[in-house]
Design goal:
Keywords: ATP-binding, Hydrolase, Nucleotide-binding. There is one protein chain. By secondary structure, the protein is of the alpha/beta class. The protein has two domains: 160 residues, Rossmann fold, CATH 3.40.50; 64 residues, no CATH class. Helices cover 28% and strands 27% of the residues. The chain has nine helices and twelve strands. It has a six-stranded mixed β-sheet, with helices on both faces. It has a four-stranded antiparallel β-sheet with strand order 2-1-4-5. Strands 11-12 form a two-stranded antiparallel sheet. Strand 11 and strand 12 form a beta hairpin. Helix 4 packs across helix 5.
């Protein structure tokens, strides 16, 4: 398995960014283990992509790293402390998680929904949002929704709903941001804008991603899940080679350099059995 390290990024504006370490982690769904034996270290400020075919365990592993689901085996550590030792509120001040299934409640206005990301910082039973409006506006503006504060969530399009949920994750202002398929339901322009936005965050970002080509240019590290295990882990340009793409995704692919930007792209020609 290929491994590489990365220099830490600048500190988070809200809290120290922890090192995340997985030690022989197994992730499960309803008692069924879908991926096992995952050991890796994610340095502070790293942008990590989880990739794999459908059913490879990306979402399941992501939820386990976030502490939403307990590992079937092994440990997730934040700066050496077991994640399971953290109280839910404490964990929610460190890790923001944006799932692919959740959508904004129709009975809330957009600003109210994004403000839910501030709940971990409020006193128990407190409903006050004093001093938080600028955080909500900033998060919405980053996702192109800055002028929609009073818009009912029921009036949002599919792409706007997706951006709204990511805005809520940004409003949580955690040193670690985890996203499950963040580009789903977004048009190509917003996919690229979002990936640029995530890359600019002064935090650790861990995302399950389907579009492997974008991983080459927008992420520092990639973890490839295949056949129930971690197939490869390292820098995208070094990991996502012709052999790996054939083994893990059953496609013929090669990296090429853009003639103008000189950035790496994946050229995929089809399934391995297509001749």
């Amino acid at each position: 398995m290929k491994t590489r390290t990365r220099k830490p990024a600048r500190p988070s504006r809200t809290a120290q960014i922890p090192e995340i370490r997985l030690e022989d982690v197994a992730a499960q769904v309803e008692g069924h283990v879908v991926v096992r034996g995952v050991s890796l270290t994610i340095g502070p400020g790293t942008k990590l992509a989880l990739v794999g075919t459908n059913g490879a365990g990306k979402s399941t592993l992501l939820r386990t790293i976030a502490g939403i689901a307990a590992p079937a085996a092994g440990r997730v550590l934040l700066d050496g402390q077991p994640l399971r030792d953290l109280a839910p509120r404490e964990r929610a001040r460190i890790i923001a998680f944006v799932s692919q299934e959740e959508t904004p409640p129709d009975d809330l206005r957009l600003g109210e929904m994004v403000a839910l990301g501030r709940i971990p910082y409020r006193s128990p039973w407190s409903m006050t949002t004093h001093g938080e409006l600028h955080i909500v506006r900033e998060a919405l503006s980053a996702l192109g929704l800055g002028d929609r504060l009073e818009t009912p969530c029921t009036n949002l399009s599919g792409g706007e709903r997706r951006r709204a949920m990511i805005a809520r994750g940004l409003a949580q202002r955690c040193p670690v941001l985890m996203l499950d398929e963040p580009t789903n339901h977004l048009d190509i322009a917003w996919q690229l804008r979002l990936l640029d936005l995530l890359g600019a965050q002064p935090t650790t970002v861990i995302a399950a991603i389907h579009d492997i080509d974008t991983v080459l240019r927008h992420f520092d590290l990639v973890a490839v899940l295949h056949d129930g295990r971690l197939q490869a882990f390292g820098r995208p340009t070094e990991v996502l080679d012709t052999g790996l793409m054939g083994e893990a995704f059953a496609v013929e692919a090669m990296q090429i350099s853009h003639p103008e930007t000189h950035q790496s792209h994946l050229l995929i020609s089809g399934g391995k059995d297509h001749r």
